[in-house]
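Run log, item B.
One chain of 139 residues. Sequence copied directly from the ordering sheet:
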Amino acid sequence: MRTKAPSRSSRGGFVILEAVLAVGIAGIMITGVSLAMRNITRLGYQSKREAVVGRIIANELQLVSTKPRITEGRLPSKLIKEWEIEIISEVTELTDVTNQDGAILNRLFEIKVEASWWEDGGYVTRSAETWRHADLYAR
């Protein structure tokens, strides 16, 4: 008995089905890659901002803490326009601080620098602080 060879029309339907499947799989892969690239870009920007904020806070903390004369109070805020970051520095005199021998430490100040910016629908804040004696850089 002789078997019939598949006709051109039945083979054509299978080829079209393969082509549709290939296009569908390629679309899914392209969507996945584009989402991954978007997330990588966003994370890269966030990590760069974190590094910049860390350097800004460290520089401001050093600037405030190395002034020859230090007084208690809040310094005028600064705005870093490029990154839209607001910097607030505050100096507070510490009282009732003693060393390990029980001696009272006079004229000791706490210096706190705080950076805040708007991100993802809310304010994000980072800060750093240090202590310093009032006469540390006096001449």
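Observations after the first pass:
- The beta strands are 73-74, 78-80, 85-94, 108-119, 122-133.
- Residues 8-65 form the longest helix (58 residues).
Flagged for discussion on Thursday.
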